[in-house]
Structures are given as C-alpha cells and as structure tokens.
Write a structure and sequence with these properties.
The model has no long low-confidence stretch (mean pLDDT about 95). The chain is built from three helices and four strands; from the N terminus they run E-H-E-E-H-H-E. It is about 30% helix and about 25% strand. It is α+β, with helices and mostly antiparallel strands and about 110 residues long. The protein has a four-stranded antiparallel β-sheet. The chain has one domain (about 1-45, about 55-100): Alpha-Beta Plaits (2-Layer Sandwich). It is globular, with a radius of gyration of 14 Å. The longest helix is centred in the first third of the chain and has 16 residues, at about 20-35. This is Ethyl tert-butyl ether degradation protein EthD.
Length: about 110
C-alpha cells in the first residue's frame, strides 16, 4: 500500500479553505479515482512542534493506493482538472507531494 500526500505549505498571507477542501475537493477527487483509490483523508494544520509556533503546512490531503502504478494510472486522466481546482481552496504555494510506502497503521 502506498500513501500519496499533498502538503500545502503554511504562509501567513495565504488562504487555505479547509472546509472546501474537505467537503468538495477531496470527495470529488475520490469519485473520479474510483476503485483504484483505497482511502483518503484530509488534515488542517493547527500548530508547529514548538509551543505557539505556526504549522509547517496549512493543510494536507492523503490518498491510498495499492501501488505507485495504480496511483499514476488513476490520476493521469484527471490531472488537469485536479490542478484547475486548486485556486478554489488556496492561493498559496503549490503542494509538496510525497509518495510513501505504508509500513504500519492501526
């Protein structure tokens, strides 16, 4: 299992609409990815590691797939549409994308 994380950097002056991201963007993405998508989640950044510090990321979206190939095949036909939706929830920097192998979960 792999997890693809889209990490949106926090910026004091950038907008990140977590409500839109959770109620529209991520469910819409999930509907287009179909059965290749094994699960998804979305997070809102609330703080950094030091007391009183800002979060490193304003928000994050996570997608689960069986493999990198399954992710690539599912996302490729929709990449432009996904990218075109970004201005609806943020005017900040593009996300940092990381693909990880899930080694343990509960």
């Amino acid at each position: 299992m792999i997890k693809v994380s889209f990490l949106y950097p926090y910026s004091e002056n950038a907008r990140f609409d977590i409500d839109y991201y959770c109620s529209h963007h991520m469910p819409w993405v999930a509907s287009l990815l179909g059965s290749a998508l094994k699960g998804w989640s979305a997070d809102a950044g609330v703080a950094g590691g030091a007391p009183g510090s800002k979060p490193a990321y304003a928000g994050a979206g996570h997608l689960l797939f069986d493999s990198v190939d399954a992710f690539t095949a599912a996302v490729a036909p929709h990449m432009k549409a996904f990218t075109d939706d970004i201005p609806n929830y943020t005017d900040g920097d593009p996300p940092v994308v990381q693909i990880s192998e899930v080694r343990a979960s509960s």
